[in-house]
Amino acid sequence: LEREQWIDRPLDEVFAFFSDPSNLEELTPPWMRFRITDYPESDLSSGSKIHYKLRVRGIPLRWTSLISRWEPPFAFVDEQVRGPYSSWVHTHTFAEKDGGTLVCDHVEYSVLGGRLVNSLLVRRDLERIFDFRTRSLSGALQRYGQAASSGS
Question: Rounded CA gap, 84 and 99, in Å?
Answer without folding.
Answer: 38
